[in-house]
Each structure stands twice: as structure tokens, then as C-alpha cells.
């Protein structure tokens, strides 16, 4: 039943053009979104919409996650840093694509959510993903440089530490903008040290990235 709902969602995302790459499609087919939603999400688990996960945060809509993953050209073996773990669902999808030869580290500022994500990842077979509690606007220096950095909360601009921690040839995706209404999914490619090429991929709506290089908590 849930498998069929998941398959229907994947078919819709393919039909609408959000999913195109075979490895990303396979990950969406495999990772059980309902396992990452408090209470399982009922009939909404495989609807294309964001859902609450507690602490005022959300698990993103599947079509938005598809845009994030497709624009970053995720592929097996990459070292990926995610900022904004939330439920852990996006981290599990990334893990499914990069595989055990790759690396996935995800940073969450709210400890209760980091713990929730750890449990979800372990239960679904992605316990090897490293979940770190901290301010992801500063990146995660210990594992740098990263092939890919995926930010799932909106900042006024791409945090400088993340650009520094990106490998030459690497790509970073982040929602950039002023508030919920004016955000753009932005991809930064580091062509060489000091040369960053920015492309924009349409409007989006994310919770704020709160931290030293994001918004202040009282903004
Ligand atoms: N990727 C998540 C998932 O699959 O469920 C959804 C992420 S939710 C849209 C954004 C998350 O970013 C929230 O859990 C929020 O607490 C977190 N966040 C906000 N500011 C942060 C920061 N400076 N460092 C790390 N996480 C942050």
C-alpha cells in the first residue's frame, strides 16, 4: 500500500520533470519517506508537500528535494555535506545515491531533531550517515573539502565558510533570500580557487538558516 503510494509519487515527479537521473529516481523509489515523519504522516506521507516534523521545522516537499539533488548532480562515491538534517530523509536519499564508497555528514542545530534523525536513519539502514549537532552555517571543517554541499534552510547569502570548504570542481546548492516569499534555489560551482559561478533555479520557500553566518535567532 505505502510502496504503491511511493511509486505513484515517483511516477508523478518523473512525469512533471522533477526527476530525470536514474540514480536519484532509484533513491526516491527506495527510501521510505513515512519512516521520517512523526506518526508516519498518514495519507500525506507521499503527497508532494512539506510536512511538520516538530520544533517548528519541516521535511521538504519531494519535488523540492528532487530539484536540490538533480541540480547538484549527485553520484556514487561523492563526499557530501548537508546543512539542516531535520528528519534525516534528505540525508538518506543522498546516502542512497553516493553509496557506502561515499560520505554523508549532516549538521542540525536543534538537538532533538538531530536525535530524531539519527533514530530514523538507523532504523531505515542508513546508520552510517554522520549526524552532527551544531551551527551548520559554519560548515563542517573536519570533513572538508566537500564535493557537494546541500543547504536546506534559507540564508541571506551563501555562508562564506561553506564556499571555503567546497572542493575545486565541487557544487553547493542553497536557498538564498530575504524571507519566505523571496528565495531562490542557488547553485555555486567552484571552478577554481577564487572563481565561483552562480546559477539560479527558480523560487523556493525554506525555513531560515539560523547561525553565525545565517540569520540571527532574533531576526
Ligand atoms: N533536510 C531536512 C529533511 O530531510 O527533513 C529538512 C530540513 S528543514 C527544511 C531545515 C532544517 O535546518 C531544520 O531542521 C532547522 O532546524 C535546520 N537549521 C536551521 N539553521 C541551521 C543551522 N545554522 N545549522 C544546522 N541546521 C540548521
Automatic annotation (TrEMBL):
Q: List the catalysed reactions.
A: [protein]-L-isoaspartate + S-adenosyl-L-methionine = [protein]-L-isoaspartate alpha-methyl ester + S-adenosyl-L-homocysteine
Q: Which Gene Ontology cellular component annotation is one that this UniProt entry carries?
A: cytoplasm
> What InterPro entries does this protein map onto?
PCMT (IPR000682), SAM-dependent_MTases_sf (IPR029063)
| Entry EC number(s) | 2.1.1.77
Q: Where in the cell is it found?
A: Cytoplasm
In the record, biological process GO terms are: methylation; protein repair
- Reply yes or no: does the keyword Cytoplasm apply: yes
Q: What's in the keyword line of the UniProt record?
A: Cytoplasm, Methyltransferase, S-adenosyl-L-methionine, Transferase
- Source domain of life is Archaea
- Catalytic residues, chain numbering: 60
One GO molecular function term of this record is: protein-L-isoaspartate (D-aspartate) O-methyltransferase activity
What does the UniProt function comment say about this protein?
Catalyzes the methyl esterification of L-isoaspartyl residues in peptides and proteins that result from spontaneous decomposition of normal L-aspartyl and L-asparaginyl residues. It plays a role in the repair and/or degradation of damaged proteins.
- What PANTHER family does the annotation carry? PROTEIN-L-ISOASPARTATE O-METHYLTRANSFERASE (PTHR11579), PROTEIN-L-ISOASPARTATE(D-ASPARTATE) O-METHYLTRANSFERASE (PTHR11579:SF0)
Against NCBIfam families, the record matches this protein to:
pimt, PRK00312.1
Q: Which family does it belong to?
A: Belongs to the methyltransferase superfamily. L-isoaspartyl/D-aspartyl protein methyltransferase family.
What is the name listed in the Swiss-Prot or TrEMBL entry for this protein?
Protein-L-isoaspartate O-methyltransferase
Q: Source species, please? A: Hadarchaeum yellowstonense
The gene for this chain is pcm
Amino acid at each position: 500500500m505505502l510502496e504503491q503510494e511511493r511509486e505513484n509519487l515517483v511516477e508523478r515527479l518523473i512525469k512533471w520533470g522533477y526527476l530525470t537521473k536514474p540514480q536519484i529516481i532509484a533513491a526516491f523509489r527506495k527510501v521510505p519517506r513515512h519512516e521520517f515523519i512523526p506518526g508516519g504522516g498518514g495519507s500525506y506521507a507521499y503527497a508532494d508537500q512539506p510536512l511538520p516534523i516538530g520544533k517548528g521545522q519541516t521535511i521538504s516537499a519531494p519535488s523540492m528535494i528532487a530539484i536540490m539533488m538533480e541540480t547538484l548532480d549527485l553520484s556514487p562515491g561523492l563526499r557530501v555535506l548537508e546543512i539542516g538534517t531535520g528528519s534525516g530523509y534528505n540525508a538518506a536519499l543522498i546516502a542512497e545515491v553516493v553509496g557506502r564508497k561515499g560520505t554523508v555528514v549532516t549538521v542540525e542545530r536543534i538537538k532533538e531533531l538531530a536525535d530524531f534523525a539519527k533514530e530514523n536513519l538507523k532504523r531505515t539502514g542508513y546508520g552510517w550517515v554522520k549526524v552532527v549537532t551544531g551551527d551548520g552555517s559554519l560548515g563542517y571543517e573536519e570533513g572538508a573539502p566537500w564535493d557537494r554541499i546541500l543547504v536546506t534552510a534559507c540564508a541571506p547569502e551563501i555562508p562564506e565558510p561553506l564556499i571555503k570548504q567546497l572542493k575545486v570542481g565541487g557544487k553547493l546548492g542553497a536557498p538564498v533570500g530575504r524571507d519566505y516569499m523571496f528565495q531562490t534555489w542557488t547553485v555555486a560551482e567552484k571552478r577554481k580557487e577564487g572563481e565561483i559561478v552562480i546559477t539560479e533555479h527558480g523560487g523556493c520557500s525554506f525555513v531560515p538558516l539560523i547561525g553565525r553566518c545565517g540569520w540571527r535567532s532574533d531576526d
